[in-house]
Design goal:
Shape: globular
Structural class: alpha/beta
Radius of gyration: 22 Å
């Protein structure tokens, strides 16, 4: 059963503007399935997971591209980086032909990859200006349940439209079931059993992606490292503390965090800085992009224990932040341009800040209902000389309601 993805429109739009579209993201988030759904009946398809095809692509990329002529989908393109230079040549030649004949551009190549380390450098060197790059993540809450999910905008008039979109209220217990399961397609569709799947997923990720980037003797330490990092989701990132816990040096810790970030396993939310920074905490906050994987790594056995554990607030916050980030990705938007957090040395903190031109929207995330004085820190943003708009308290309430002139409650099920 195919589940419609919000990112489909962004992929199709990119294909109208560029001769090449690159779709990358963590393993098993549905890249190949989505591309096959959109282009499967019109494009050739080849995967470099196939040993014979990969051998040909590595030894004779020109011949490979003659055999699999465009339009073509090439899956796991990072396994044969030499193809990118040949694709560049073909695109440039075809552009000249289109120009001479006054023809409209066409989408020639769709490339997918799960190893962003190897893919990024090749794209920036060979295909700069010739391709659109789109990041995919695991299912959002809206995608799992078949709801439309417009681009997140904290303006109250826009959010209220969601109350009439047919979504059903979810209890706290149901929300934590969603948090526990995460958004990996094979788990959501029932193809795979959760525990078995995540064990295999972690093994595959480490063996195929990570071991190329770290020393072989460090494998056990890295396995411990990724679990230690999972226990710190929704916390400020302190490399020295993680390094001490794992038993590695800070330099190695920074490199390993970079591996998790670049492969889409975690996201680092930056603090908001605007030249008034000497009293601001400058460490980013760390969030896992899939709460199901995070819960597995933390060894929580079921949703009930996750809901009642000491980390329940961190998982609730991780779920909210990752949902908004995944929504940005689905619309081919960069969350780093709009999403930040605030914390100063006086311990005043705002979980999330949304910036839009001269407007600033403070957002607090609370796992309960009707928290006490949730907007108490919003006024600290006045120092930035931006328009402080009514903020949001995202919690488990049932509808959008004003709390005071500064904030509205916003139900998590409407994300």
């Amino acid at each position: 059963m195919y589940i419609k993805r919000t990112v489909e429109k962004a992929i199709l739009a990119a294909g109208e503007s560029f001769p090449c579209v690159v779709v990358y993201g963590p393993r098993q988030v549905g890249k190949s399935t989505t591309i096959d759904h959109l282009f499967g009946d019109k494009y050739n398809k080849v995967t470099l997971d196939d040993g014979d095809d990969r051998a040909l692509a590595l030894s004779n990329p020109k011949l490979f591209l003659e055999i699999y002529s465009w339009p073509v989908v090439i899956d796991e393109i990072q396994k044969a980086p030499k193809l990118l230079d040949e694709i560049k040549k073909i695109i440039d030649e075809q552009r000249l032909t289109w120009m001479k004949n006054g023809e409209k551009r066409k989408l020639m190549y769709i490339l997918t990859g799960s190893n962003r380390f190897e893919l990024q450098e090749g794209i920036s060197d060979s295909l700069a200006g010739r391709c659109a790059v789109i990041e995919m993540a695991s299912f959002t809450h809206a995608e799992k349940y078949g709801y439309d999910a417009p681009l997140f905008n904290p303006e109250i008039s826009e959010l209220k439209k969601r109350e009439h979109s047919g979504r059903k209220y979810k209890s706290k217990k149901e929300i934590f079931e969603d948090i526990f399961n995460g958004g990996i397609p094979d788990i959501i569709t029932g193809v795979a059993q959760r525990e078995i799947y995540f064990k295999s997923y972690v093994n595959t990720y480490i063996e195929r992606d990570v071991m190329k980037l770290i020393e072989t003797s460090s494998e056990l330490q890295f396995r411990n490292f990724i679990s230690i990092v999972a226990l710190r989701t929704a916390q400020e990132l302190h490399y020295d503390e993680i390094a001490r816990t794992v038993g590695i040096d800070v330099r190695t810790c920074k490199r390993w965090i970079s591996i998790l970030q670049t492969s889409g396993i975690i996201y680092l939310l930056q603090p908001y800085l605007s030249n008034i920074s000497n009293r601001i905490i400058k460490s980013p906050k760390l969030y896992f992009m899939d709460t199901g994987l995070c819960a597995y790594l933390c060894k929580w056995p079921n949703a009930e224990m996750l809901e009642s554990c000491a980390m329940n607030g961190a998982f609730f916050e991780t779920f909210v932040v990752s949902e908004i980030i995944k929504n940005f990705y689905a619309y081919n938007k960069d969350p780093k341009e709009s999403l930040f957090y605030y914390r100063d040395i006086d311990q005043k903190e705002i979980d999330l800040i949304y910036i839009n031109a001269e407007d600033i929207y403070p957002i607090e995330i609370k796992k309960g209902v009707a928290p006490t004085k949730p907007s108490k820190n919003f006024d600290v943003l006045s120092k930035y000389k931006l328009n402080i708009k009514p903020g949001l308290i995202i919690d488990n309430c049932d509808k959008i309601r004003p709390i005071n002139e500064k904030a509205y409650t916003f139900p998590i099920y409407l994300l």
